[in-house]
Amino acid sequence: MADPLDIPLRQLEYLVAVADHSTWAAAAASIGVSAPALSQGLADLERRLGVELFDRQGRRRVLTDLAEPVLQHARTVQTMSHDLAQWAERVNTLKMGALRVGMLDVGAVVHFPEVLRTFRSDFPDIRFHLTVAPSSELLAGLRRSDFDLIVCVQPSEIPPSTTSTHLLEEELVVVRPPDTGSLPARKWGPWVLFPQNSQTRSLIERSLRDIGALPQVVAESHQPDVLAQMVSLGLGWGVLPIAQVPSHLDVEIGDAIATRNLVICQRAGAPQHPGVEMLVERLQSAV
Fold it and tell me: Which residue has the higher pLDDT, 286 or 88?
């Protein structure tokens, strides 16, 4: 068996490509190699590790359970290599480069717009790039090394090689159509809520069940203002962060039924852009 410590990075890239694509042909095309070269590289990886990474099911090859730790290691190495290459480019070109920030809409629009504005004004040499997206997309992007830091809803489990710093806590309140009065929880709804795969939706559904309100969902949206509009039109009841309930809409605001935490997430051990620490300090000072 070859020395398992002497694993080419290219072979780890092959493994990630196969895991992320439905066919070997698509995996090979995504990294610019032929299908035979991909197959040969992965066969060599299996020999080096002495572990069977694939089961053959007819003409298909699928990852075995033993391949999962290898895949996680490959993803981590790939991300760290990408981070190091970007850091080296910044140093060698004597440029600050782009500071890539991902942020939940409530952070960018409600809680921290002034922080973002003054940061850009105070550091004009930094090419500041902001992406506003749901928390699940931000966490996936952080894992791919698309961001230097993100502000998102605290996930139920912190992904591997990720650090999390508490930023603030938000109340989630019931928002109901006008003239619905004070009804028992069992008569609340139907509901218009955040999408099923969001961390906020999980918090809301758990809280609704705790108070006996069956969460029958008739509409979904990532955008709080859209959900609030649906409530004002009488389509259903909603649960929103209190800071994102539009004051001009004809809706009634009920009690807080849950809280969610916003956190700053970064990749642990990654070479940092010089502006990361400064931005983190300003975000924390703002709350």
Answer: 286
For residue 270, the model assigns a pLDDT of 75
Distance CA 243, CA 258 (A): 14
Bond before 160 cis per omega within 30 degrees = no
The secondary element (H helix, E strand) that includes residue 35 is: helix 35-49
Instruction: For residue 197, give the H/E element and its range.
Output: none
192 contacts 217 by C-beta, under 8 angstroms:
yes
Asked whether 264 and 280 are in contact (CB, 8 A), the reply is yes
Containing H/E element for 260?
strand 252-267
Output the pLDDT for position 1.
46
Question: What is the b/e burial string over 16-50, where b = at least 16 CB atoms within 10 angstroms of the residue's CB?
Answer: bbbeeeeebeebbeebebeeeebbebbeebbebbe
Higher pLDDT, 90 or 216: 216
Q: How confident is the model at residue 92 (pLDDT cuts 50, 70, 90)?
A: low
Q: How many CB atoms lie within 10 A of CB 281?
A: 10
**What is the set of domains in the chain, with CATH numbers?**
9-86 (1.10.10.10), 94-167+263-286 (3.40.190.10), 169-260 (3.40.190.10)
> How far out from the chain centre does Cα 75 lie?
16
Would residue 242 be called left, alpha or beta, if left means φ above 0 and alpha means ψ between -120 and 50 degrees?
Answer: alpha
pLDDT at 2 over 60: no
**Single-letter amino acid, residue 65:** D
Percent of residues, the chain, with pLDDT higher than 70: 93
Which residues, in sequence order, are bridge partners of residue 263?
A: 152, 166
Which one, of 141, 187, 165, 130, lies nearest residue 262 by Cα? 165
Locate the DSSP E strands across 28-161. Answer: 54-57, 60-63, 98-103, 127-132, 149-153
